[in-house]
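Hey team,

Filing this mostly as a record. A colleague (T.K.) asked me to run one chain through the structure pipeline before their review meeting, and I want the input and output archived in the tracker in case anyone asks later how it was produced. No errors, nothing strange. Just documentation.

Input sequence:
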Amino acid sequence: MHSAGALETRREMKIAVIGLGYVGLPLCLQFGRSGVQVLGLDVDPVKVEAINAGRSYIQHIDGGAIRDLAAKGMLSASTDVSKVREVEAIIICVPTPLNKNREPDISFILRTAESIAPHLAKGTLVVLESTTYPGTTDEDLRAVLESGSGLKAGTDFHLAFSPEREDPGNPDSKVAVIPKVVGGYSPACLERANALYGRAIQTVVPVSSCRAAEATKLLENIFRSVNIALANELKQVYAAMGIDIWEVINAAKTKPFGFMPFYPGPGLGGHCIPIDPFYLTWKAREYGQNTRFIELAV
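Output structure:
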């Protein structure tokens, strides 16, 4: 684990963030506030126009922060992906939904890679933040970037995975103080990614590989999914017994160890919680593994 103080440098730096949704836009703002010039890229011209006009299109994000950074020249937006040739690092924050068969759909990642590959300059760092199954970064993303650019990951350009940890339902959530897990394709890739996030995030947590970082994000969301499913089931069981589940949870959470409260509700909270477990169950089949416990919860 590293603090930003050890990694931070004050030289001028320019990065691109691809995908200006609820993950990408807060990241843009945090890097901009930290003295890094940010180019936001999105296929949606409405989002691009809003940022360049200093307007917010996400409820919990203040338009004033966008206006201030745009006025200072620290934040701009474009639909022109060829501009990635101007930056030192590219961060990809695009959706990873399920298809109609409830299988992972990484097409947004691959299409993004296809679009940036011809413009990828030597020495550039490419980081994927989109939640996905282990192997996406070092297999799928790497293959598209290498074939489209003629460059080799770990030699000509750097490659890493750092899972997003956005808390959109919490108005007090601050990107800067949420520890950032980072895994690199090689030790040099990891070093570059650590240095990048150290510019804007207080605590960077390096792990041994892109796959370990991808698996970390899945564990976080599956943990939440399984425990909310358990809380929902217990609510029904206890209600049949005439017991108030909320009273039980509030009593249980007074235990200072070995317990974390999860609460029943109509949904699983956030768009990703019901989706992400399927990314692991799908990939596990490739290794002849069944994830019965996870599938019961989702």
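Quick notes for T.K.: The mean pLDDT is 90. DSSP finds eleven helices and nine strands in the chain.
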